[in-house]
Specification:
InterPro entries: AceGlu_kinase-like_sf, AcgluKinase_fam, ArgB, Asp/Glu/Uridylate_kinase, Glu/AcGlu_kinase, NAGK-C
Helix content: 40-55%
Order of helices and strands: HEHHEHEEHEEEHEEEHEEEEHHEHE
Family: Belongs to the acetylglutamate kinase family. ArgB subfamily.
Bound molecules: adenosine-5'-diphosphate, N-acetyl-L-glutamyl 5-phosphate
Enzyme class: transferase
Pathway: Amino-acid biosynthesis; L-arginine biosynthesis; N(2)-acetyl-L-ornithine from L-glutamate: step 2/4
Number of helices: 10
Radius of gyration: 19 Å
Largest sheet: 8 strands, mixed
CATH topology: Carbamate kinase
Function: Catalyzes the ATP-dependent phosphorylation of N-acetyl-L-glutamate.
Distance between the termini: 49 Å
Number of strands: 16
Shape: globular
């Protein structure tokens, strides 16, 4: 067989390998939390959006919840303010809130534009629109961190309507409290709340690290499967810090609320989402129910 023919056959094999996954996830809701470095690098950004668009075109129902923390910090720096975080959450005073909403709005529309350019209908909305995300004030270990919101309700009907009309919803993590004040929501929190409310089949967090490490300084300690109990223990023992903290807490909450598959993926790996969904090769860290534990080398 010549080389060209072998290449075509290899491509066909890849498609065949994807078949059971296409069947399994057909018409299922997949929430993709998109943040970290994969958002800043234009090439990676285009690839992530291409992947989500492909998921849509093969019959899945993806919903993107995006972050933009790095971009917000860049703009906060530009006006000579200092970004400040507590437990992975941005301390958000009125001025920071204004900037965050501007930046997240811009990120939102750039993602809509990318999806539209690939021929798929996208609608970008903030959690304020139709009161998609209602919030109450969130504290970091009892400390007041300003206009940071904890999601109290998701108006899921809006998203069901958009999915029904075949739109790809792209959601920006800003919400309203009962007094109609604007709140900044950590995008991991927003994605988890949406996945729970929509009874999503899968929740994937795309971030800028390989996955969860037992020791973040040592890449050989990457954990490929983490049960809820093990995740609690890692947090309790102080192995999880910074932005990984809200992510892990949300993974635990999502699994405990019935989302079947929760993953933390390295958004810097081109097409990580497709690799995770369409192949047997596990990448990143999968968070599992305690009863699903297969292998863990974290101790
Ligand atoms: N145990 C850990 N394993 C992996 N990452 C960790 C861990 N503890 C802290 N981190 C930090 O959490 C970061 C991921 O959070 P963050 O930067 O907020 O992601 P995103 O912007 O995608 O939401 C990693 O880049 C890493 O620096
Ligand atoms: C309250 C809070 O922390 N809000 C986040 C919202 C954006 C975000 O979560 O972005 P990433 O997912 O890219 O980190 C922030 O202001 O950075």
């Amino acid at each position: 067989m010549n080389k060209d023919m072998q290449q075509y056959l290899d491509k066909a094999e890849v498609l065949i390998e994807a078949l059971p996954y296409i069947q399994r996830f057909n018409r299922k809701i997949i929430v993709v939390k998109y943040g970290g470095s994969a958002m800043v690098d234009e090439e990676l950004k285009a690839r992530v959006i291409q992947d989500v668009t492909l998921l849509k075109l093969v019959g899945f129902k993806p919903i993107i919840v995006h972050g933009g923390g790095k971009e917000i910090s860049r703009w906060v720096g530009k006006v000579d303010m200092k970004p400040e975080f507590k437990n992975g959450l941005r301390v958000t005073d009125e001025a920071t809130m204004e900037l965050a909403e501007m930046v997240l709005g811009k990120v939102n529309k750039s993602l809509v534009q990318l999806v539209e350019s690939l021929g798929v209908r996208a609608i970008g909305i903030s959690g304020k629109d139709g009161r998609l995300l209602s919030v109450k004030k969130k504290y970091a270990n009892g400390e007041d961190i300003g206009f940071v919101g904890d999601v109290t309700n998701v108006n899921a009907d809006i998203l069901y309507d958009l999915l029904e009309k075949d739109f790809l919803p792209i959601i920006c993590p800003v919400g309203l409290d009962d007094d109609n004040n604007t709140y900044n929501i950590n995008a991991d929190d927003a994605a988890c709340a949406i996945a729970k409310a929509m009874k999503a089949e899968k929740l994937a967090f795309l971030t800028d690290i390989e996955g969860v490490y037992k020791d973040p300084q040592d890449s050989s300690t990457l954990i490929s499967e983490l049960t809820v109990s093990e995740a609690h223990k890692l947090v309790g023992d102080g192995y999880i810090g910074g932005g990984m903290l809200p992510k892990i807490n949300n993974c635990i909450e999502a699994i405990e609320s019935g989302v079947s598959r929760v993953h933390i993926l390295d958004g810097r790996i081109p097409h990580c989402l497709l690799l995770e969904i369409f192949t047997n090769k596990g990448i990143g860290t999968a968070i599992l129910n305690d009863s699903e534990r297969r292998y863990y080398d974290g101790e």
